[in-house]
Structures are given as structure tokens and as C-alpha cells.
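Task: fold both queries, return C-alpha cells.
Query 1:
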Amino acid sequence: NHKALIKLAEYSRNRIKKLITICITGSSGKTTLKEWIFKVFKQKKISYCTSGNYNNEIGMPLTLANMPKNTELCILELGMNCPGEIIKLSKIANPNISIITNIGSAHSGNFKKLEGIADEKSDIFSFLDRNSFAIIPGDSKFYEYLYKKAYNNTKRIFSFGVKDNCEFKIERTIKKKISKFKIMNRVYQIENKSYFFSWEQNIIIILGLAKILKISVESILPNIQNLKPLGGRGQVKKICLE
């Protein structure tokens, strides 16, 4: 029964007092970002993450219920099809760090306007507290709305993007295949071995997380440069027509 599954998930989450839980939602890019965060930080902390895209009201609690009791860092993907899902999943996951990748029209069939999607996605901030962190897309037209929603619960809010006011800033590329990132006034240059649309966005979020988690950025750079798109995502295929 679903209620029993939720109780198991909540027990599993709350039994580890020093667990750091990262929850990710957005209209696209959730699964890749979740997998990359796991791959980058698993050598620094005992990490666990959502299996595949088990991100709904059954899959996410099931993932959480199976979390090993020695886990230090848990990365969960929160999906959405209908209104009310994100707040239910956030209550179960009780995140320390909540991330919104973007606000798009992926779920427009169940929402009349993009504003409805933004409102639903921002429910991921509902269970944060003053010691929690919110990471939001600084280039989104919903930036101010997302900021205000997060600010109701925490003042530790960081934005990512290309705009100058972003704390996690993507700078202009200085050379081909070299990307430049600025995190709280510190600049990093990283070789891009597998460029695709959201590569820079994912990397800037990961670099920001390293600062939040107080993990040396230099120590994770080799892991970052080994990241590759997930199967069937962000890959270029050459087709020969005869």
C-alpha cells in the first residue's frame, strides 16, 4: 500500500541524522544532472541516487526506502505530471538542497500556463529551512517568482546562468572546447569533451554544489572532465544517406 511505502521512505530518510539530501526538479535535464552529481561526488561522500528515472509518487519513495543506512549524500529526482506531486515528494524527501533546472513546457498538457508549472516546480522549496539551500535558474523569466518562493523558507539562495547577477555564473567561452565558470568570484576553466546543450548548465550547478558542500573544486575536476551524456541523450549521430 502506498501509505506504507511513504512511511518506509520517511523513516529511511530521517534515520540518518547527518544525511544531506539534494532534490532536483525541472522541465528537462533532471536525470542527467542527478547522475552527474552522483558520479562527481561519490568518491568524496558515500552517495546514493534515484535509480533511472524513478521520480514519481511510487518510484521516488521506493528509491528512498532502499537507501543504505550509511549514506552521506542522497540525490533524488522529483518528477511531475499533475498538480500537487512536487509538494508531496518534497515532504517525503525533506531536502537540504533543492534545485530547479528550468521551467519549460514539458508538462503543458496538465497546466494551462507556464506560470502554473513554475508554481508547481517551486513547491520543491516548501520544506527547506534557514540552514537549507535553494539553487534556481537565473536566466529564467520566472527567476523573481522562484526567488520569492524560496525566500519564504531560506535566505541561502543561489542562481546559475549567464547573467551578471548569478552567483554561479557561466562566462563566455574563451576558446573552442574550453568553458569558463565563475563561482563566488573564483574562476575555473574546464575542457569540454562532450559538448551538448545543457553541459555548461550542469557543470556550473555541480561546481556550486562543491562550494556548498565544502568540497575542493580542484579535487573533483578530473571527475567532471570524464562526464559523458547518458545513453540516448546529448549525443550526435552521423547518418549516411546513399
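Query 1 returned. Query 2:
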Amino acid sequence: MSPPHASVWREWRGPLILVVAVFAVWQLLYLIAGEMAMRSPLQTFSYLRGLLAGDRIWPHIQETARASALAVLISIAVGLAIGLTLGFRKIAGEIFEPMLVAVYSIPKLTLYPILLLTFGLGLSAKVAFGALHGIIPIALFTINAVRNIRPILIKTGRALNYTTGEMVWRILIPAALPEIFTGIRIGVSLTLIGTLLGEMFASQRGLGYTLMNAMGLHNVDIIMSITFILIVFAMLVSGVLLAVDRRLHRRV
């Protein structure tokens, strides 16, 4: 039997090697590109520490966090509602699933002017733009998850005279949860990207707005610092969701 520290090392070896490799490549790119294009990891950390110690960046972090949280909640709620409804009702699913795929194939930036006219310039527009990226993937994964449920489970629910709500809560969701959660994991990632894009193109607050403003002014320190914040946040969210996803699949 291997000692506990050996199993811990095996579990964390991959992520640690990846982190070291990323910082090594980052430093190498800095040596190649020079000061005009980027900053070294040490310079970025030094600037970021001063930036986080002040009050200038925190309102933008809070704005992005609030918009992202609202967009994720809407994506999950609406995506699950659509997916469970169309997955459970076969005829409706066969009719509307191709429509969802067609809508999702449309480049999202072409729809952003419509969202701006509908919701205005502010929090609502970027929340809607973020949710637009996540709803359909979650719905499509949920539809397929419900379709793959063993028919005997559905027959059992009908034999017990379950209502539609009871069928969804007691049978569909528990049986399809691993695959549904995979869709949620992908949908959340896309929602975060959509929210950030919404801030970059039509917003006056948030990390996306600050990043675009820094790019216009060629402020490399701000660009590198905000990019690092976004990467760390995305990695943390993806890591947590991926760990839960793997645990759910191992239980199947």
C-alpha cells in the first residue's frame, strides 16, 4: 500500500507540472518578445499586487463577478428547463432540437446589436449575451441525457403514477445527472466567455471593459494583470466543475 503523500503527489503532479510549464513558457515568450509586447511573470505579479491593494480595480472585478453569476444562473435554469422539456417529450424534441442547433451556429456577435437595443448599455445586455452562449449547450446536453435514460425507469415512474414534476425530480434528474452536469460545465465556461465579450464590446464597467481600454492605450501592465486574473479565475472554476464532473461519472 502506497503512503498517503504518494497518492497526493500523483493527484497533484499533473496540475503542478502544467503550472510550472506555463510559467516557463511565459518567461520564454517575454525574453523573445520584449518589454513592448508583454511583461515577465515577476513584473506582472509585482504590478498586480499594487493594483489589488488599491481601489481602482475592485469595482470592475465586482461588476464582472455579478454579471457572470447572473448569466450562469440564467443559463443553467433556462437550459435545464428547455432540455428536460424537450428530452421528456420526444416529438417536441425532434422538432425543436434542430432549431436550437441552427440558432447556436449563428455567430453570437451578430446578435449583440439586437441585445443592446433590447436591454440597453449596461448590466442587462452583457448578462443576456453571456447567457446566450450557455443556454443552448446546456439544453442540448440535457436533451441527450434524458433520451439516454433506460426506458425501464420511465415505465416505473408511470407505473407509480408520478406527475411530470415528480418524474423529472425523482427519475430524470438523478439518472441523467452526470451527463447533464457535463453540459453545465461546458455551458458555464461558454457563459463566462460570453459575459466577458459583452463587457469588451459595449460596457463602461467590468474587467472586459478595462482590458479593452488598456489595449487602446497600450498599457501592457494592465493587459497582463487582467489577463492573469481572468486565466486564474477560469482555471479555478473549470477545475472545480471538472472535479465534480469526474466524481459524478465515477458513481455511474
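Both queries returned. Flag for query 2: The longest helix spans residues 164-201.
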